[in-house]
Amino acid sequence: MSAVRNVLLFHSPTSVRSWRDDLARALPEFDVVDSLDGIAPERVAAAVVWRYPPGLLQSLTRLRLIQVLGAGVDHVVADDRLPPGVPVARLVDESLSRCMSLYVAMQAIALHRREPELRRAQLEGRWTYIHPRHPSKTCVGVMGLGVLGLDCARTLLGLGFTVAGWSRTPKPDLGFPSLAGGDGLEEFQRQVDCYVLLLPITPATERIVDRTFLARAKPGATLINVGRGGLVDDDALVEALDGDRLGHAVLDVFRTEPLPAGHRFWRHPRITITPHNSSGTDPATALVQVVANVRRALAGERPENLVDLSRGY
Question: Is residue 190 part of a domain?
């Protein structure tokens, strides 16, 4: 009688189609499935997931690893029906970081060169000359100095921007000025012309960009949100844009995704929308890390890039 094989659950509806097949080839000792229909829960030893329905993993009593296919883990942290004691690992991938940094650089350059104003002038048939400024005249403030935030900050420095950082806890010796905590936030805001949001979403960061925050922003400051939609108070953002406190906002993440068709953001003249595609996980570079973590967990070893569920990241 043949031994019962371990099962790996792959659930990531938005990932490229090759992921499941790539995992099956790289982990031939597993049955890789994308549904639990007909699968005995005790057979599932690992789950590789992104944006799964809450409670999906609850019955998997022999689960040894939850591997998230991205840097953000708020959807896992918010699932109050996780099987207890299962390690959760996030993805730290050089390709994902580079992709994010290129997106942020693209949008920061566009805002620095006042591309939204030039685009409006074109649509209205107006010849509007805006004199180019050196990037050092714009301070880009990166909020969230994890792997993605640091890569973005260093990319922006390489392009000649002035860069400042802010994080909840101090991050020394970064090669650029950074501040931390509530006491450092106001000083940080006095410097910043363009905000880049890359914070994890936690109770401490939910709606961190609120009316108070926006009232302290420099007049005409701009904002790029590539973190999570919940970092921003939507009503406060629209008020700041309409009242000329904020010049423009680039939004790649939203409270509800996909962004509903009738949402006010779509047609706001000072909002640029992209469909949560600032970065993405590429199997060509991430597969090795995922496979290694699954094998570590099954061997009783500590997986890499573990998440502290109590902190939310």
Answer: yes
- Summarised one tens digit per residue, pLDDT across range 134-168 is 999 999 999 999 999 999 999 999 999 999 999 99
Whether residues 81 and 143 share a domain: the answer is: no
Q: How many CB atoms lie within 10 A of CB 239?
A: 15
Same domain, 203 and 223: yes
* pTM as predicted: 0.93
Q: Does residue 267 carry a pLDDT above 80?
A: yes
Cα 80-83-88 angle, rounded to 5 deg: 85
Residues 107 and 218 in one domain: yes
Could you say which of 20, 90, 112, 228 is catalytic? 228
pLDDT per position as a tens digit, 109-133: 999 999 999 999 999 999 999 999 9
Cis amide linkage into residue 258, ω under 30° from 0:
yes
Cα distances (angstroms) measured from residue 5 to each of 33, 45, 137, 217, 303 = 12, 10, 60, 57, 21
As for how many domains the chain has, the answer is: 2
Residue 138: CATH number of its domain:
3.40.50.720
pLDDT digits 0-9 by tens, 268-287: 999 999 999 999 888 888 99
Residues 6+ apart with CB under 8 A from 17: none
* Structural domain that includes position 32: 6-93+281-298
Catalytic member of 211, 276, 295, 296:
276
- Please check the confidence at residue 66 and state whether its pLDDT lies above 60: yes
Residues near 281 by beta carbon (within 8 Å), at least 6 away in sequence? 15, 50, 69, 70, 91, 93, 96
Is there a catalytic annotation at residue 228? Answer: yes
Q: How far is CA 22 from the centre of its chain?
A: 24
Angle at which helices 94-112 and 115-123 cross, to 10°: 60
Rounded Cα distance, 65 and 3, in Å: 21
> Which residues lie across from 268 on neighbouring strands?
none
Separation CA 270–CA 247 (nearest Å): 7
